[in-house]
Amino acid sequence: MNSSFSAPGIPPGGPRRSRPRRTARSLTAVAAVAAVALGGAYAAGLGPFEGDTGPDPGAVAEARAFLADWAAGRLPQAAARTTGPDRAERVLASFTTGLDIGEPRLTAGKPEETGDGTLTVPFTAKMPVTGLGTWTYTSELPLREQKDGAWKVDWTLSLVHPRLTGTEKFRLEREETAPAEATGRDGETLSAATH
Question: What DSSP string runs through 93-141?
Fold first, then answer.
């Protein structure tokens, strides 16, 4: 004996499920529109799909690593990141110890592409000279892409300081000077003991 029961207002076979299907179709349509929009942005070179027009991240990373090694006193490692490691290590060491520099702070700026496989990264140097304060200046790191695709700092003396050349050098000279003599309006010498 077959008998079927249906509640009032509910068709035989159970309730209809048209709402979930409509929702699924709407989500599919939204996804299709988003895919077309993202594809258009990619083709136009917009947003996160911008074309590769910026400096090579490997070059920028190498410049920052060189500055970090130099600042930390890891001069052999810094020199190894250059195209002239032996000369670089000697110059960096004599510059730092010769000028009695403590722990330099070297901050990289915005890199600039110069073409022909080269790149320049400007940086600010804050050199604490013992007993004299901090010497601040700006310079630039030239980087060159090597045959194997790696980047190296293209060694030149002027990257240490723009005025440093084969003939222009820096030398620290300390002179002992007598304290300045202060005089009053009447011409008498003023001393720290009385004033």
Answer: HHHHHHTTB-S-EEEE---EEEETTEEEEEEEEEEEETTTEEEEEEEEE
